[in-house]
Each structure stands twice: as structure tokens, then as C-alpha cells.
Request: fold
Amino acid sequence: MRFFAALMIAILLSGEGVAACPLNDTLKLCVSNGRSLAALHNGVDRGDWTVEAPSSPVNTTSEPRTGSEQYTMPSGLRFAMYYQEYRRLFSATCTLDYFAVLAADRSEDLRCSSAEFEAFEAGLAAASLGSVTKDRKECGTAYLVEGQTRG
Reply:
């Protein structure tokens, strides 16, 4: 089974850590469990996060199956997961719902320390997902993770 996940994290780097830094939630939801719908829904069953109206395709035999779901972490951060599934290929894009954070006037909560970035990158490496491409810009950092799942 192939797994592709694109993680876009546009988080400003600050010198101070904040408890609501989204990197840990991103690693847990998007990276560790973003390899299939079954893994994502197992996280709901375990109580790791909640999902708003899980997607279920109208015709389960049609391919590719596509959909999107909204996940809420215990921290209150929300993520959108857009996916396509075609036979043994699962492609997912996971994004943090920035508008919900900004609407709640919690934008300062998105700041992550250098140590939190290092822990996130160590978690990516430890997950052994394949290749990780990092693109750091002034406005934030983007990671592209692509590789084989363990089956």
C-alpha cells in the first residue's frame, strides 16, 4: 500500500514554547495515523480525537473514493483531512484549520519553540515513513512526506 501525505505547516518560529503548539497533534494525527481511513477512525475509537460526520462513500465500489473529514484534537485544534483512495493507493492532505484559531483569537498559541520543531522532525524520522522534504521560508515551514506504509 502506498502512502502520501502532504503536511503544510505555516507556523512562525518563536523563542518561547506554548502548550498549544500544533506540531505534536500534527505528528499524531496527520503523520502517524494519516496513512488510511481505518487508522484515522481507530483514533476516534480510542478517544485520541473526534471526527465530525465521518465520510462514507455513497458507492463503495467506485474508484477513486474521495472525501474529507474534520478532526478535533483534545487541545481544541481542528484539522481537515482530504483524501483519495484508489485500490492500494491512499493519498491524504492534512491541514490545520487556521481560521478557527484566528477566529478564537488564539494565534499566539500556534507559535512553536526550536525544541518543539526539533522534536517534530525527530518524530518524522522515527516514523520511518520514507522521504521527508523540508522547505523553510520566512513565513513558515512545509514538509512533504512520501513513502511506503508498513503493511
Remarks:
- The longest strand covers residues 78-86.
- Helices lie at 23-32, 37-46, 98-103, 114-126.
- Residues 1-19 have pLDDT under 50 and may be disordered.
